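Example 3.
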Amino acid sequence: MDAILFYAFAAIAVLAAVVVIAQRNPIYSAFALVVTLCSLAVIFGLLGSPFIAALQVIVYAGAIMVLFLFVLMLLNVRREEEHPEARGGRTLAGIGLALVTLLVLQAGSVLVRSERSPSLEFDASTTRMAEVLFSPHFLYAFEATSILILAALVGAVVLAKKEL
Amino acid sequence: MDQPAFVPHAVLLSLILFSIGTLGVFLRRNVITVLMCIELMLNGVNLAFVAFSRSWGTLDGQVLVFFVMVVAAAEASVGLAIVIALHRHKDTLDLDAFDLMKG
Amino acid sequence: MIDDPLLKVLPFGVLLLPLAGFVVLALFGDWIRRDKEETGAGILACSTALVSFGLAAWSTWRLQGLVATEAGLRFFRPYLGFEWMEAGSFRVAYSLLVDPLSCVMMLVVTGVGSLIHIYSLGYMAHDEDKVRFFSYLNLFTFFMLLLVLAGNLPLMFVGWEGVGLCSYLLIGFWYRKESASAAGLKAFVVNRVGDAGLILGMVFMFYAFGTLDLVDIADNAGSLAPEALWEFGPATIACLLLFVGATGKSAQIPLHVWLPDAMEGPTPVSALIHAATMVTAGVYMVARLGPLYHVSETAMATVAVVGAATALMAATIALVQTDIKRVLAYSTVSQLGYMFLACGVGAFGVGVFHLYTHAFFKALLFLGSGSVIHAMSGEQDMREMGGLRTKIPWTYWTFLVGTLAIAGIPFFAGFFSKDEILAATLSHPVLFGIGLFTALLTAFYMARLLFLTFFGDFRGGHEREHHLHESPWVMIVPLVLLAVGSAVGGFLKIPHIVEPVFRLEEGHLPHAAWLPRVATLTAVFGIVAAFYLYLTRPEVRAVLARPFRPALRVFAAKYYWDEVYDAFVRRVVVGGSERVLWKGVDVSVIDGAVNGVGTVTGAFAQLLRPLQTGLVRHYVLLVLGGAVALLGWILWS
Amino acid sequence: MTPSPMVAELSIAVVNILLVIGALLGLFSLMTWVERRTLAFMQYRLGPNRVGPMGILQPVADGIKLFFKEEVMPAAADKWAFLAAPVVAVSTALLTTAVIPYGPPFSLPGWALLPEWLRGRSVQIQIADIQVGLLWIFAITALGVYGVVLAGWAANSKYSLLGGLRSSAQMFSYELALTLSWIGLIMAAGSFRINDIVAHQAGWFWHWNAFAQLPAFLVYSLAATAEVARIPFDLPEGESELVAGFHTEYSSMRFALIQMAEYINMITVSVLAANLFLGGWHPGVPGVPETLRGFPLGFVWWGLKVGFVLFVFIWLRGTLPRFRYDQLMHFGWKVLIPVAAVWVMVFAAWTALRGV
């Protein structure tokens, strides 16, 4: 059951990801990306991480992508124009990237075949997540993220505002 | 609890998503699309983290995902603010139009 | 170690109150300045100083109680709870040290300091910038307390530098006067020379002993092997280097030249910084490290010889000065020499004792001279004064007490401490001779000062005579209190109190029954001679001076120290810098290196420039290429 | 025959889904009528009273009318997005309802009509009782913005676009306050599960979060009203400025779908208010029996609370004027969110000090 769901949503994710980069219309790209993100959320849930799954939807799909859409609407972005003169270079880049992808996949296969600790007790409940996140090991990093968010907030306002 | 057999394939999926994202960064000229592709790459990485976390039975990977998300949120907000500022200056979103730093 | 929660907090209160005063004055100065009189500044500064004194007295009383209940050496280390610096075994904590010695110093600093704060209320009443003045005074009090309370050398060094800074600021307080600015600079620069020695000493100490904690140093000094004369072991080198710092701060040969010039500052500053507290920092440090100095015979000899020489030299210069504050300044140098002399012969407690009595009577004398100057509307030349006895009686009587105290007339404070110093030097005839002779000179020049100022007829003209007036009560009260201190302060047996700090066996000081009598006679002789030469038969002076004319010329020229330094600095330092360092090293080596780096970088940049296309995509490509290369390397290596 | 546990669970879930969605659809139609009638009474009118007894069949008539109306799509619209938007809106609205419990857990009666394995089985009307229930709701409400954004953008009309921008800005501004108001409850109950939070409020009524965490409740009430864009926060469809906001260009059944999504959202926040703040199915007085002749009384209490909240929504609509847009944003960011954040801190400090 889980496996079927996994492969189904993996397929959706990949397809939508392809749409993201193939679409010339950025709004469609954005919606395709939302689909990818939501499928990934499902996959996170299948991997036993309900908290991360919820976060994925809240933060990525709910916040970040809305922001993208907002900006797209604000700037009224339409289709990307064709640039014929860039064609050749891009084909070259495409070939190079295909090679790189092969290499990355090779790395992936190594990772996949690498040893794993067999079937440890895995408990990713929110309580456990909170325990790990607020342990001394991560606490300062966690606090630092709040500063980061604040800085980003102020920075975004300053950058995007017409005049201060 | 035995881990599902598809966990290694989640790693593969993450690599595929990452590659697609990278490809998008190179193919697309629209700044916003490029930013979205970067989000896609980050998500690939996140998936890898979660999968590793699952396969090693520790939560550190998930915590990292949490941090990645925070950073991604910050990056997206600042990045989009920059995009708006750029658009105001040049009235275009073509990535190739921004080459002020040319040496 | 004893544990007393109150003592953990009180010293920090003592220390930080003046700092708080300074901070408030510095931050809210403009707010206080809205009141034209700026009364708030003085009140704030005085109250912080007074409360600080109260807390200091309380701490001392607590410590006293603890010492009474438990026998043996007692000290206390309040600790702020965290480190200032920590690197390997080098550890500097924010810790203080409270023991009898620092208690005495703390009381002197806050007690005399408070009185001088109050005195300043009157003295600076007509000044335009009271906020600045009082904020500096408070800052100085803080740094001085930090200096005497610090639990380790680096922290003490902070206080040391801080008081130097405040000294500079206060000497040059009237910065519109060029001589004041110059004097401030001189004090600062000369002190830097000494401070360099102090830093080197600290570095060497850490290298040699591995600790800079004052208690550790004192505890471990006993286990060091004694170092004989001309034997330059670690203790000797460290002590000598530190002593360079002490000569700078405490105005000893050869770094004494700044102190007389420092009289350019306001008189309360001269009293507080350049008589009672800051200049005694060197003595305090030597006494604080007494156990270490005791190990090295060379260092002790150096301290004693420098002290004796300074005492004698400064006293002779004081004989011929005509500026009332300069006489007192050279007198201070001389008395500081006395203190070092005491330390040098191993009587650290006596040195501290003299420091303590000196704080009273020298502060009194400076404040008295300030009152005189105040009465004379700024005139400092004694030749313009005379007969002030009846015009400013309060000042006169308190000044008289101070003079008697410094001259060593029995039962005044100075008598006891000077007597003990002389007693301590009994085993060294030469030093004893110098000490006794200096005592004679001291009595003489102080009596001269007294007679020229307060006796005879007024020489300043009618116009000025008309304006003579006694100072306001805020200036009189501190004078009276200090006079009381100068009169009875000697009955407190400071040496006995601070003796445990030095970890030395309570050696019975040699004491000859004839000594007090001889010392008294010397003092009386000096006063009588001055009385004879300056009041009854002034014409004899010229006759008597004739054979000593060359010597007197040298005295008047202050032994040509300034000229020698001037020549040295001009010739060697400035000339050498210009010819060798600037035209040689700087132009060819340093500029060459800088320009060379620039040229090479530029050339490389020219090579790399095409890479900088300005297009993000190309950068991403490079990053990706690098990542892929790394990945490949990891996979197939 | 007893089915395997998995099949049993699945079939119960399917029944639950049908039940919930059916009930919601029914309630949606009913609500349109209730709202119109109540408003009419408040304004000294009669309201729809012709179709059926007291006009109760009016929604059916409306449905039939909308069904037969012509569907218009603007020529410049983005076709796919235009079609997808209502679907997204309704799906997200329905998805939210999946994790909410509707009424207390109860034992099925032993009627012979039921298959044997169902008799006396303890069930609850809740599609999925998941561990991160509140997070789920938060996540799906966050997705709810897409329906609005998509609808606004796809029509290629300035009213739609502006309405869509306004709506989405309002929705995620108030979402923050909404979520912050929950943090205190989560801390108190120590769980994201809605059932746990309801259980935490058992006993006397002052244990209800509405009283125990009054600031959070106030924040929630205001933020929820804004979140579902009801008066006085119905700026996105301020007809005097924007015609009808993001759904200006929609007509016929698609309009009905969007309308339905909005009503479902309103019902959802009402049910949540009852569950999270008003003690759910607890009567608020200890000692009241749980069942009356086998009928779980919890449903009665619960139904009363939900009905009350729904009524308040209508009441507000009949009473209050509309905010101005800048006032709305000002209120959300500078009043509600700080209040909620401060309350979270206060409550956290109190919890920590109490040593729980």
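The radius of gyration of chain D is 21 Å. Residues 5-354 of chain D form one domain.
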